[in-house]
Specification:
The chain is an alpha/beta fold. The chain is built from twelve helices and seven strands. It starts with 22 loop residues before the first helix and ends in a 6-residue tail after the last strand. The protein binds phenylalanine and fe (iii) ion. The site of phenylalanine (PHE) has 11 residues, from helix 6.
Length: 275
């Protein structure tokens, strides 16, 4: 980390160094991008597809963050900042609270097209940035950043992190043409894009804020339950109140397993898998 072009700043950001990507790396981006185009046309929500269309520079090569930021900034005032990998929670939330989205720069190898443990630029940019083009979602993400700083101070980050997981990363949404995807972890995975909507195995349950904040999640497999919002206004409205009393209430309640289904759940589909 001595080279000025890769040196990490105090806020953990680095320079993207776009000219350094190889032709092979740009090719991996194009392969991932065009495969998802076919998969997501009838599966992603209209807001994601509109956001992606508004980022037209992303279709050809690994995007240059400076060119993406011109489009994203004009749409919602968000900025993508480059980071070397996962950053400390407080740093991550601090960026979101200022409408900056930390994105990794490296791209997966050609033999990792279908699965990668940690986020790469395809997940971070293709997965997350289209939704940041949407005004309501853009405000939700900023509010989440502020809420993250608060949850850290209250010792309740484990509860709030589940909200991020089951909405930002793995969220589904109703649409006139059926359930569609908005979660970044799904849209950046071909397998889960199909599984989340079409497999009989997972539960699909109506969005319920406190229920989600009680529910553990899987990081090493497709999700056992997906939570479905009616629209982004519902998600934004539900997360407006001060969460402090919610965190207090959750302290007295047991966690739920990822595959749990409760009598009071709004079950849209009950998973067939015995987990
Ligand atoms: N309203 C939440 C709080 O008071 C913050 C928040 C907003 C969290 C949006 C998530 C999403 O903590
Ligand atoms: Fe992510």
């Amino acid at each position: 980390m001595s080279d000025a072009s890769t040196a990490r700043r105090a806020d953990f950001t680095i320079a993207q160094d776009w000219p350094a990507y190889s032709a092979e790396e740009h090719g991996i981006w194009r392969t991932l991008f065009h495969r998802q185009e076919a998969v997501l046309r009838q599966r992603a929500c209209p807001e994601f597809l509109a956001g992606l269309a508004g980022l037209e520079v992303a279709a050809d090569d690994i995007p240059d963050f400076r060119r993406l930021n011109a489009l994203l900034g004009a749409a919602t005032g968000w900025t993508i900042v480059a980071v070397p990998g996962l950053v400390p929670d407080a740093v991550f939330f601090g960026h979101l609270a200022e409408r900056r989205f930390p994105a990794t720069c490296f791209i997966r190898r050609a033999d990792q097209l279908d699965y990668l443990q940690e986020p790469d630029i395809f997940h971070d940019v293709y997965g997350h940035v289209p939704m940041l083009m949407n005004p309501i979602f853009a405000d939700y993400m900023q509010a989440y950043g502020k809420g993250g700083l608060k949850a850290l101070g209250l010792g309740s980050l484990h509860n709030l992190a589940r909200l991020y997981w089951y909405t930002v990363e793995f969220g589904l949404i109703r649409s006139p043409s059926g359930i569609r995807i908005y979660g970044s972890g799904i849209v950046s995975s071909r397998g889960e894009s199909i599984y989340s909507l079409e497999s009989p195995d997972p539960n699909r349950i109506g969005f319920d804020l406190l229920r989600i904040m009680r529910t553990a999640y899987r990081i090493d497999d497709f999700q056992a339950s997906y939570f479905v919002i009616d629209n982004f206004a519902q998600l934004f409205a539900a997360t407006q109140p001060d969460f402090s009393p919610y965190y207090e209430k959750l302290r007295g309640m047991a966690d739920l397993a990822p595959e749990a289904v409760l009598p009071e759940d709004l079950v849209l589909h009950r998973g067939k898998k015995k987990s």
